[in-house]
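Lecture 7, part B: from sequences to assemblies.

Below are the input chains for today's worked example.
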Amino acid sequence: MSDLIYSAKIPEPALRRLPWYLSYVKLLKSQGETIVSSTQIAKKIDVSASQIAKDLSYVDISGKTRVGYDIDDLINVLESFLGFTNTHTAVVFGVGSLGAALLSDSGLEQFGLKIIAGYDVNPAIVNHAIHHIPVFHSNEFIERNKEMKAEIGVLTVPPGAAQEVSEYMIRGGVKAIWNFTPFRIRVPEGTVLQNTSLYAHLAVMFNRLNG
Amino acid sequence: MSDLIYSAKIPEPALRRLPWYLSYVKLLKSQGETIVSSTQIAKKIDVSASQIAKDLSYVDISGKTRVGYDIDDLINVLESFLGFTNTHTAVVFGVGSLGAALLSDSGLEQFGLKIIAGYDVNPAIVNHAIHHIPVFHSNEFIERNKEMKAEIGVLTVPPGAAQEVSEYMIRGGVKAIWNFTPFRIRVPEGTVLQNTSLYAHLAVMFNRLNG
DNA sequence: TAGATTGTTAATCGATTAACAATC
DNA sequence: TAGATTGTTAATCGATTAACAATC
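Predicted structure of the full complex, as structure tokens:
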């Protein structure tokens, strides 16, 4: 008798496919289309039609038999389901090349991630701004985040510092960590962890290239 | 009677975990350790010991019963298995904020990815260099790549251009595409495709934050 | 009505987990 | 020898695929 009955938890692989559908129907919309069927999506992006149907069943949308889905509806429902219409505030720890690029990437804000500050220990960048976003000394985070209240911590520090910095961010009130380091950090129950290691993806690509 | 008998194909989830083990044992090495057991890794990075054992069984390494693995051996074997000791040449299509960051990230070269050129259509950046890597006009790619022979194409263009640009890169001889756009591109049989959409990872994180 | 599509239910497939044998 | 560890084999779990009923 839990509320799991009402919202079946979507499996992660399915969740990761939804942005593909969104991206494709946005393209269709820009071409003036108004209706799309799952079989049509299936052919274009190389995912089986039954998988698309199954994935969309987790989302609150209903298509019309023999017709398909209304493109505007589908875009709205997917964007809202994926959290792209809300604003989530974030800080970036480690303003090296990747961290700085994330500060500069205005695309992220369109997808609901608003970076409000960077933190680093390098005097050459502390107290400067990148793309109008201030960079502070890491020591100041806990004090500053009492007001700023960033919800998400983006982790782009060297791997050796990853675990320590993540714990520091959590002490400062962060509820989720987006980990770009190759290091597998551990977080307490209740903290969300998203690993995005470019090196792991490189490894998969290299392996498939040789096999 | 195929050679699949000799090299069991490693599942992708397992392949993505191997860099975690590598990262952790490199940390141990930097702390002066010489031996590590899978149970020790398990505790520290929150992966079950049996999964680590299973994952390592795909790799050509053998541990010593009652002792564990030699750290230097494990690092060498993992780095070589993951392709980090080879040099793979790459070009980056789309030198926006993310593309430029990849050109600037010297970390990638340490993991076996050597970016030899950027390509874009924006006159403001074409024929300049970023971090000593030249940026050319996209039109010149096919001609230039006859000599440069980049093996991997990194795709950081706007989603609407993703499919078209990927086909162009493949015509130019690229064997694998590292796709950073949220668009699900289709590639011919035999071309390796690695999707790394930051937005998909954002979506997973947002979903888990709310749930 | 016939046919195309949605969307659910059942079957299959593959990865993870658990149990345990082998080893030093 | 006793105990800790590797590494394999079997059981479980969950996602994908296939079949098909419902619908317009």
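Note for the exam: The domain at 88-201 of chain A is CATH 3.40.50.720 (Rossmann fold). Keep this in mind when comparing with the next example.
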